[in-house]
Write a structure and sequence with these properties.
L,D-transpeptidase catalytic domain-like, four-stranded mixed beta sheet, 7 helices, 25 strands
Length: about 350
């Protein structure tokens, strides 16, 4: 009786220990009687995906093959060459993803179109791979490259001296054609067989101000050489003519700098400043053309009451004699007047 009890107890104990193991590894489902299990569909022969043959494979098998064959290459960096410089574009930074399973399903679907084709013909189909990436990130990345390879154009410039006009030539620039580079990178991202290198193209940028344009921008320039007592006139940046002048006396120096002609008058009135040197005329206005008006014939105002005018004291020409203005002989100032428009640059040195 003890042996029987022990055997029964062992059987009970063994069954209790074995039950959890059976629960963890359930047997595969058994199809109902009379139902034949259907094999997984296979991709038709002659179907390729991204250049990789997947004919005769199930979707699951094709997914594994595509992931191994194409995944590493599609995720490899792309080399971009621009202006003898090289840059690396990493697909992951563009949010790139390769969906091997979706590509396999595309191949399965494409194979259905070959069902009615005679196998002897040997027709094949190559489906594109299923990839995705962020166009926004691609645009931002290419814009960053564009800033690094930008060569800004340089405008032509003019340096005015009392004796000549010094021009510096303009230079064109170069700018990356961003939309073309974006399209080239997108093609490589989508095509695993494509070479993982693209070349960015740049287009020329013209300077806003060219060498020839300077002459149109500066049709008339006046320079006043205080030390040489000479006014020079330049037309289209070429020397045209010069006139002898008188400038400010000591203590009443003619101001220096680059100015513009602000006003023009024929037989201007003289508004005498309220200063001791004006004597009895201080604070008064002397009509234009009056015998005692020191501003003879013409007036070309420059700044702060200083201007170019004719004088009744031609013997003062070639000296420092005025109270800041530039004196000219009356025939000379009459000749100069129509040649200089309002706004003309005027350099005093």
């Amino acid at each position: 009786m003890r042996k029987v009890a022990t055997g029964v107890a062992a059987a009970v104990l063994f069954g209790a220990c074995a039950w959890p193991a059976a629960a963890q590894s359930p047997a595969p489902p058994v199809p109902p009687p009379g139902v034949v299990p259907q094999p997984a569909p296979t991709i038709a022969a002659g179907v390729r995906a991204g250049g990789v043959g997947v004919g005769g494979l199930t979707v699951e098998q094709a997914t594994a093959k595509l992931a191994t064959a194409l995944g590493p290459r599609l995720r490899a960096p792309i080399t971009v060459r621009v202006a003898r410089k090289r840059f690396r574009v990493r697909p992951r930074r563009l949010g790139f993803r390769f969906d091997a399973a979706r590509t396999a399903r595309r191949a399965l679907k494409a194979g259905l179109a070959l069902a009615d084709v005679d196998p002897a013909i040997g027709e094949t189909v190559d489906v594109p791979v299923a990839v995705s990436f962020s166009r926004k990130r691609l645009r931002g990345h290419v814009s960053g490259l564009a800033r690094r390879v930008l060569v800004a154009p340089r405008n032509a410039t003019l340096r005015i001296t009392v004796r000549r006009m010094v021009r510096r030539r303009s230079y064109g620039g170069r700018k990356l054609v961003e939309y073309r580079l974006r399209a080239a990178i997108a093609r490589v991202l989508r095509e695993p067989r494509a070479r993982r290198a693209v070349t960015g193209q740049r287009r020329r940028l013209r300077a806003a101000v060219t060498y020839r344009a300077l002459a149109r921008l500066y049709p008339t320039v006046v320079t006043i050489d205080r030390g040489g007592f000479r006014l020079r006139l330049f037309k289209r940046l070429r020397y045209d003519r010069s006139y002898p002048i008188a400038v400010g006396a000591a203590g009443y120096d003619t101001p220096t700098g680059l100015f513009r002609i602000r006003t023009k008058q024929v037989n201007p009135a003289w508004h005498a400043p309220n200063r001791p040197w004006a004597g009895s005329y201080a604070g008064r206005t002397v009509p234009g053309g009056a015998p005692d008006n020191p501003l003879k014939a013409r007036w070309l105002g420059i700044a702060n009451g200083v201007g170019i005018h004719g004088t009744a004291e031609p013997w003062s020409i070639g000296s420092r004699a005025s109270h800041g203005c530039i004196r000219m002989r009356v025939p000379d100032v009459i000749d100069l007047y129509p040649r200089v428009p309002v706004g003309a640059p005027t350099l005093i040195r």
